[in-house]
Structures are given as structure tokens and as C-alpha cells.
Design goal:
Radius of gyration of chain B: 51 Å
CATH architecture of one domain in chain A: 2-Layer Sandwich
CATH architecture of one domain in chain B: 2-Layer Sandwich
Order of helices and strands of chain A: HHHEEHEEHHEHHHHHHHEEEEEE
CATH topology of one domain in chain A: Alpha-Beta Plaits
Helix content of chain A: 40-55%
Distance between the termini of chain A: 137 Å
Structural class of chain A: alpha+beta
Order of helices and strands of chain B: HHEEHEEEEH
CATH class of one domain in chain A: Alpha Beta
Oligomer: heterodimer
Strand order of the largest sheet of chain A: 1-2-4-3
Number of strands of chain B: 6
Largest interface: A-B, 100 and 89 residues
Number of strands of chain A: 11
Largest sheet of chain A: 4 strands, antiparallel
Helix content of chain B: 40-55%
Radius of gyration of chain A: 45 Å
CATH superfamily of one domain in chain A: Ribosomal protein S6/Translation elongation factor EF1B
Strand content of chain B: 15-25%
Distance between the termini of chain B: 127 Å
Number of helices of chain A: 13
Number of helices of chain B: 4
Structural class of chain B: alpha+beta
Shape of chain A: flat
């Protein structure tokens, strides 16, 4: 080999290697770029999957937000905003007056603002009144639409007065409410497309969610014959003469007499209901006599109770409680239950209605409309309301009333002047009938309420006010 | 031997390239071409393809972004409302109906007018927020009196209180105790026993007990 050739070869080799090296570097670089892009693709695919997952949840999230928004509006009604705090003070004063208490002082309690969406605000009240007035006031506060909570009660009992009912106690109340703290940054509401129509579709769900929050309100039952537990109930030891000062034993005898009278009334009632000794139900005359006797005794007992209360004969509070809970209230319950009529004796049963239905159907089949109407009218007062009784009874009432209506419509139809003078029967087309000189096809209206339904060889069927009536020819 | 080519250059026979050089050149050119070809394939082929794919995916993603952001906003609003709802529920849960409680208490003390088991009354009542250990609740303290000198009647009253619906929700009550008072001869009976009544109510405890029963 010539030395130059070696050099040339070397040169070629070096150049080739250098160029190949550059090419290899380029390939490596390109592959790196490809790898980068693939990584980016993989990330994007992950993000797309995540985004699609979120989008799939949009309907459910919209539903939840709509329900929450609509209900939080309602809930927020129970918590006034800042502007209505003055209204709160007015409410406290108004309720005090409504309960009959004397409000001697009303002052806000200064409290530090705390973090959160709601802030408490308290008012201290000083009042005077009886225990029952206080109970009425607390009940009014607790049942107020705006949230109010009695946080503190301090009661000092009155000194023993002349009569139990006069006891005026001194009361301190602390009442708390909350207001919505608008200063706390809440998130702005998202605009939901077609909000109103979506809200309409969710009315039931909104109502169901709201109903879970409804509280059972408690109603104060009043004194109900009970004594004020902040008053010493003991009677004076010297049984003074005059109003409300009967000795205790005498008062006890009065209550015992009333109890005995009530027991007699209860016994008479039992006998009237067939639950007396022997167990047999009395006849009409016996029941009438017993009823008279019962009414008489009820009258006596009622006037006795009235007299006792008007004259204040029972000054010993526990005995007055006994009179109310063991005599007066049971008497009123007994009287109320006696006044309720037993429905079975007032309205017809299922069997009777079945018979009426059959006879009306038979009469209508025979074309005797007057008989069908008459049959209904005889029983009309004893059929009763459409929604009374068992489902079978209700169904029968519906059928019987329907038959009556049909009979009335048929009677009205019968009074119409409809003279059929001819007809053409077409088995494969619309038949024709001549009525009062005019021709009508099947389905044609004769007047506003009357249509020709169909023709048969021996009759023409009409539809009059929704009722199918067949007129024989 | 020296070779002298006397012919002018234009008439001289061209010299042939050496086979080795040719081979080397061809090989080198092949190598370089191959590298260039592979590079071009990758750069203009594979890389272009993945870039296009990425661009398409990016476009798709951009379409989805606003809707996904909308769902994020909905969730954030849900969380906000849920926090408010939770607060309202908490307020309601801890609310005590003092009308109901006092009504029930009056019933227990009245005992339907039966004055034989106990005949009690009270000089004062104080209901105030407090704590039993770490648990917040309400103290209900009364200064009580029972007619007669039989301390057993005070125990009867405490029994009736603990067994009544009124006591649901209360976590503690003091032990019955009493002190016979000075005779009041103008009253019948003249004797009475003074006793303290201290109870502690925990809001929500009554509802928990009712749920457990159900």
C-alpha cells in the first residue's frame, strides 16, 4: 500500500466515524425527544381520564348543590342576619308581653366575635310573673321561627301569697340566637345552567332533605290543674271560715264525692255498651233510659265542678290537681267519646250497596230509568261519602253513583225529540240513519252533546253526555 | 524502474481509484447515510407522529378543562354548604326544649295530686351552662322543701325524678339528703325538710338514648 493511500483510508475512516458519531448523537437526541413526548402523552391521558371522571360527576354534584342551596336558604331563615338583630330584641319584648310577664330589664350581653359562619348574640332579661306565664314565654321563644335558645334561667320564688294563683316570681332569663356572619368569605355561587328547571325536577328531593331538619315543636300544655311547684302548698293550720278556707278533710270529701259520681257515670256507660255485668247489650228502650240517666249525672258533676272552681273550695293544691286529673279530664274525654257516632249505624254496609247496585243495573237493562233513579234516591242519605269505609265499599259507592248519573242522563235523552225514520246498514262501511228528517253517518254529531255511535239491525246506539244509550227501532 | 509518462496530460490514461479506498469510502458513506436515514426516520417520522398525537390530546384536554373546572367549583360550593349544614345540625342537636323539660318536672313533683308519697316545693331554680368533666351541658339546681319530717319522702321524690321521662338526658344527680326545718306552727303540717336538688343535663344525650332504644 502506498503511504498516501493509508492516509486517505485513515482520513476516510476518521471522517466516516465522525459523521457517524454525529448521526448517532442525532438519533439519540431524537429518541430522547420521542421519549419526552411519550411521557407528556401519558400525563395528558391521565389528566383526560381525571377530567372525564369529574365531568361524569357533574349531574350528581349539581343535584347536591341545588338541594343544599334551596335548603340552606330555609335553614338560614332560622338564623337572622345582622340587620334583623334589632327585630330579635323587639320579639323578646313582644313575647314577654304576650305571655303576661312584666319585663323589667332587657340588655345585650357583650361577647367577643368568634370565627365561623355564625355568631351568637345573647340578651339578658329580668321579668316578673307566675310559673305558667314563664312557661308560656319560654315556649314562645323556643317555637319562634328564628332560632332561639334559653341559655340560663334564674327563678326566685315569691313569698307565699293569699291564694296560690297569685304567686309572682322574679325571673332572670338569658336568651341566645345566632346571626349569619357575612364577613366570613364564603365561596361565590356557581352558575348552574337551567337552574330553575333542574330545581323543579328536584322538588321532591329538596322537600325530603328539608323534612329531615324539621323539628317537632313542643306545645306547653298549660297548668292543667297542676299546682305551682314554687309555692308552699301547705294549708294554714287554723282552718279559717270563708272562701277557700275549708279544712283539708272537708276538701278531700268534696273530691271523693266527685270521684264517686264519675265512677257511676263510667259504670252506666259500660252497661250501655254491653260491658256491664251479664255482658248482654241492652235493648233500645233500656239504652235510652241509661242514656238519660248518664246525661243527668254528667250535668250534676259538671255543675259541681264548676261550683268548686268558681268558689275556690279546693284551696289545697294537690286536691285541686286530683280533681282535674282524676275527675274533670276523664269526664270530658268520656263525653267526647260518647258524642262520636259509630259509622256502621249511620251508613249502609257492603251487602246493602251490592243489592242497590244490582237493582239499579237490572232497571237500566230493562230501560226502566225512573225505577233506577228512584232506587238510588231511597238510599241516597245512607250511602255516605265517597271516601268512607273499606276499599270494596268505596268502589261500590262509586259504581252506584255512576249508575245514578247514567240513569239521569238517559232520562234527559228520553225527553229529547229523536224520530228515526230510516236507515241504511253497510257491513263494510259507515251505516247511515235518518233522524228528524236529516241523515247522519256513524260517528256524526247530532247536536253538541249527542253523537251517533253505531247502527245494528234493531237499534241505534247514541253517545249522550258520555253515556252510551241504545234506542230500539 | 522509473516510469516516465511523456504523453500530455490530456492523452494520459486515467489512474483508477484503489479498491480499498473505494471500499472504505463506500463503507463510510453507507454508515453515514444509515445514521442520517435513521435520524431522519426518527425525527420526521416517529417524533412527528408523537408530537401530532400529543397535540391532539392537548386539544381534547383543553375542551374538557372548563367542564372539569366547573365540577371543581360545584364540589367547593358543596363543601361550603355542607359545612354550614353541619353547623346548623349541630346547633339543633344541642338545643334543649326547656318548656318540655320543665313541664315534665312539674308533672313529677305534682305526682297527680298524690301528697302521700311526697309533697314538695322549691324556693329557687337555676339553670346555667356548665361542664361535667370535659363534657359541656347544663346545671339544674333547685332549693327544695318537702312537707313533713319524713326524709324518706325526699328519697321518694328523687326516685320519681330518676325514673321519669324528665330525667332522660341527665347525666348526674346528687344523692338525696335533707335537713329538718324549724316548725312553722301556722301551717299544716308544721314540719318540713329542706333538701338540695342538683342535676346535670348533657344536650344530645336524650336523643342518643332514644336512638339506642329503637
Amino acid at each position: 500500500m502506498v503511504p498516501n493511500e493509508k492516509k486517505v483510508l485513515l482520513g476516510i475512516g476518521v471522517v466516516s466515524l465522525v459523521l457517524a458519531g454525529v448521526g448517532a448523537f442525532g438519533i439519540h437526541y431524537a429518541l430522547g425527544k420521542v421519549s419526552e413526548e411519550e411521557t407528556a402523552i401519558h400525563d395528558l391521558q391521565g389528566k383526560i381520564k381525571e377530567a372525564r371522571g369529574k365531568i361524569a360527576q357533574i349531574p350528581a354534584d349539581e343535584k347536591d348543590v341545588i338541594i343544599l342551596r334551596e335548603n340552606v336558604k330555609e335553614y338560614a331563615k332560622i338564623l337572622p342576619d345582622e340587620k334583623e338583630v334589632t327585630e330579635y330584641a323587639r320579639t323578646l319584648a313582644h313575647y314577654s308581653s304576650q305571655a303576661g310577664m312584666i319585663l323589667t330589664s332587657l340588655s345585650p350581653e357583650i361577647r367577643q366575635k368568634r370565627k365561623g359562619t355564625f355568631q351568637p348574640i345573647r340578651y339578658k332579661m329580668k321579668l316578673q310573673g307566675s310559673l305558667w306565664q314563664l312557661m308560656r314565654l319560654i315556649n314562645l321563644l323556643e317555637n319562634h321561627p328564628r332560632f332561639m335558645q334559653v341559655k340560663q334561667i334564674r327563678l326566685s320564688a315569691a313569698r307565699k301569697g293569699k291564694t296560690v294563683g297569685d304567686a309572682v316570681h322574679t325571673v332572670g332569663l338569658t336568651v341566645e340566637t345566632y346571626y349569619y356572619n357575612k364577613s366570613v368569605k364564603g365561596k361565590t355561587q356557581v352558575k348552574i345552567p337551567n337552574y330553575l328547571s333542574k330545581k323543579t325536577d328536584l322538588e321532591e328531593a329538596i322537600h325530603n332533605a328539608r323534612s329531615k331538619f324539621e323539628e317537632d315543636k313542643y306545645s306547653f300544655k298549660g297548668p292543667s290543674g297542676r299546682r305551682d311547684i314554687f309555692v308552699d302548698p301547705r294549708l294554714p293550720s287554723q282552718g279559717a271560715e270563708g272562701k277557700g278556707r275549708l279544712p283539708r278533710k272537708q276538701q278531700q270529701r268534696i273530691v271523693d264525692a266527685c270521684r264517686k259520681l264519675l265512677a257511676e257515670i263510667v259504670e252506666i256507660k259500660k252497661r250501655m255498651d254491653g260491658k256491664g255485668p251479664g255482658g248482654s247489650r241492652p235493648n233500645i228502650i233500656q239504652r235510652f233510659e241509661l242514656g238519660k240517666e248518664m246525661s243527668k249525672r254528667i250535668g250534676i258533676l259538671r255543675s259541681k265542678i264548676q261550683q268548686i272552681e268558681e268558689q275556690g273550695l279546693l284551696s289545697y293544691a294537690p286536691l285541686h290537681s286530683q280533681l282535674v286529673t282524676n275527675v274533670k279530664e276523664p269526664l270530658e274525654k268520656l263525653v267526647a267519646s260518647s258524642k262520636e257516632k259509630k259509622p256502621e249505624s249511620e251508613f249502609l254496609g257492603v251487602d246493602a250497596l251490592e243489592r242497590i247496585k244490582k237493582s239499579m243495573e237490572d232497571a237500566l237493562d230493562l230501560g226502566d230509568l225512573d225505577l233506577a233513579v228512584e232506587r238510588y234516591k231511597l238510599a241516597q242519605n245512607k250511602i255516605g261519602p265517597a271516601d268512607f269505609g273499606t276499599p270494596k265499599r268505596r268502589q261500590l259507592v262509586k259504581i252506584v253513583k255512576g249508575l245514578y248519573r247514567k240513569a239521569l242522563v238517559a232520562q234527559e235523552f228520553a225527553r229529547k225529540k229523536i224520530k228515526i225514520t230510516g236507515r241504511i246498514l253497510r257491513p263494510d262501511g259507515l251505516s247511515l240513519v235518518i233522524i228528524n228528517g236529516k241523515s247522519y253517518f256513524e260517528g256524526d254529531p247530532v247536536d253538541e252533546d249527542l253523537f251517533v255511535k253505531s247502527l245494528t239491525p234493531d237499534s241505534v246506539e247514541f253517545i249522550y253526555k258520555g253515556v252510551v244509550i241504545s234506542k230500539k227501532i | 524502474m522509473i516510469r516516465i509518462n511523456l504523453l500530455p496530460e490530456e492523452y494520459r490514461r486515467k489512474e483508477k481509484t484503489s479498491f480499498k479506498i473505494f471500499l472504505a469510502t463506500a463503507g463510510g458513506a453507507l454508515l453515514v447515510s444509515a445514521c442520517a436515514g435513521i435520524f431522519a426516520y426518527i425525527w420526521f417520522g416517529s417524533l412527528a407522529e408523537v408530537r401530532e398525537k400529543r397535540a391532539t390530546l392537548q386539544e381534547n384536554y383543553q375542551v374538557l378543562v372548563p367542564q372539569a373546572a366547573y365540577d371543581d367549583q360545584l364540589k367547593a360550593e358543596k363543601q361550603d354548604f355542607a359545612a354550614r349544614e353541619k353547623t346548623i345540625k349541630q346547633i339543633r342537636r344541642n338545643r334543649i326544649s326547656w318548656t318540655r323539660k320543665l313541664d315534665q318536672f312539674i308533672d313529677v313533683v305534682n305526682n297527680n295530686g298524690d301528697d302521700q308519697r311526697h309533697l314538695a316545693w322549691f324556693g329557687s331554680l337555676e339553670i346555667s351552662p356548665g361542664k361535667l368533666g370535659k363534657r359541656p351541658g347544663y346545671n339544674m339546681n333547685l332549693a327544695g322543701y318537702c312537707a313533713g319530717n319524713d326524709l324518706g319522702k325526699v328519697a321518694n321524690l328523687f326516685d320519681d325524678i330518676v325514673q321519669s321521662d324528665f330525667f332522660k338526658g341527665f347525666a348526674a344527680i346528687n344523692e338525696p339528703s335533707g335537713k329538718v326545718q324549724k316548725l312553722q306552727k301556722d301551717l299544716d303540717p308544721p314540719e318540713s325538710v329542706a333538701f338540695p336538688l342538683k342535676m346535670f343535663l348533657i344536650p344530645g344525650l336524650e336523643k342518643k338514648a332514644d336512638k339506642k332504644k329503637k
